[in-house]
Prior knowledge:
By secondary structure, this protein is α/β, with parallel strands linked by helices. Helix content is 49%, strand content 12%. It has helices spanning 25-37, 58-72, 87-100, 117-129, 141-144, 152-158, 174-183, 196-201, 212-227, 231-249, 254-265, 281-297; strands at 9-12, 43-46, 77-81, 104-108, 135-139, 164-169, 187-190, 206-209.
Amino acid sequence: MRLGPLGRCAAAMITPFTEDGALDPAGAERLAGHLTRRGGCDALVVNGTTGESPTTSDGEKATLVRAVKGAVGDDALVVAGVGTADTRHSVELARSAQQAGADGLLVVTPYYSRPTQEAITRHLLTVADATELPVMLYDIPARTGDGTALSLDALRRLAEHPRIVAVKDCSFDLLKAGLVLAETGLAYYSGSEELNLPLLAIGGSGVVSTAANVAGPQVRAVLDAYAAGETETAARRHLALLPLVSALTGSVPGTVAVKALFRAAGLPGGPVRPPLLPAGPELTEQLATELRAALTAAT
Length: 299
């Protein structure tokens, strides 16, 4: 495994809300401590998709970064999602995240307006120029559209920027990832749980994991086994987690699934914000069953 600049096992952290839907900073502090001190995570990604960033205000985003960083201190890195479809807005969010104490930035490719590769590259370079923080690019064409998938040429060019250091890869394109790993110094983090181990095998540095919210030690155990050269153990642990991964990302978004499990376990989470809908009792029980099985099988 390459040594990653932004941790190894990062949870794509949910954003806790109170029962009336307001931001819950105290809950976020409690959850951040749980994920890092008991959950095996050495980094937390906040204000991302799993964190319901499309429905939180700029002020709430900054408050969340301050709360989470205050809770974990030097025990973990805090990476703040700042990507939007508007370059100026992304720059503002990046500067706000730096002021709030973030250790790094996660910047998704601009979506909806379908910019060219040149426009995408300039957008990402502009955000990287806006602060002194290291930047993790977010390549996720399933959510941003195939036209905004980062091309190999764009990644080569972006890798030349001194603060662009990593990629969260949800492209499902191991060929592209392998070529970037071979030709640049970018660190690759798997954002698609089913590809965690395959990406490690070609030089990945770690994961940004939704499953780590509920099974952090088990996700971390795959990384630890692989780093120790215990590839059979890593494969067994990886395969044992796949039914849980399927349950978390199958019929509902991962945010909905994680918050349902947290509610059942008495952990901070609260409701999801519209347009998301909460999981019903039947789905919650199914998720809990898969989680119990995964925790048993992955030991």
